From TrEMBL:
It comes from the Eukaryota. GO terms for molecular function: nucleic acid binding; zinc ion binding. It holds the Pfam family zf-CCHC. Residues 82-152 are annotated as: Disordered. This is CCHC-type domain-containing protein. Gene3D superfamilies: Zinc finger, CCHC-type. The lineage of its organism: Eukaryota, Viridiplantae, Streptophyta, Embryophyta, Tracheophyta.
Amino acid sequence: MEDAGLKKFLVTRFLDFKMIDRKSVVSQVQELQVIINDLLAEAIVEKLPPLWKEFKNYLKHKCKEMTVEDLIVRLRIEEDNKAAERRSKGNSTINRAHIIEDDQNNSKKRKKAEQGSNQPKKKFKEKCFNCGKIGHNSTDCRAPKKGKKKDQ
């Protein structure tokens, strides 16, 4: 009710304002400017999105003491804070996902290593293509890799 009354009061002040000949035009323009600034500040606060509800309530109490410029500065600060908060929430979620993913990969590697150590290795019974010795494959060969011949 109080908000509705304030809005009606501001709109009524604006609509009822008339310049008269007895006063200085400059002083009347300044009065009109004050009314318009109050109306503009109230309109800006009212049009804020639903996620800004808490900040909107804060501004309703402070709006009377602020100029439109001050209001815009506070809105910029709040928007930057909200953006930083969203970024930090997004980064922490991504970091947690990487940690979990890395843990899963490491556990798979450990399982493969454990399985391999329990079973005896089978010897390769053919000749190595790299060094020509029997008992290992060319992928397990310790000798330096031979370069491919130009003829082949």
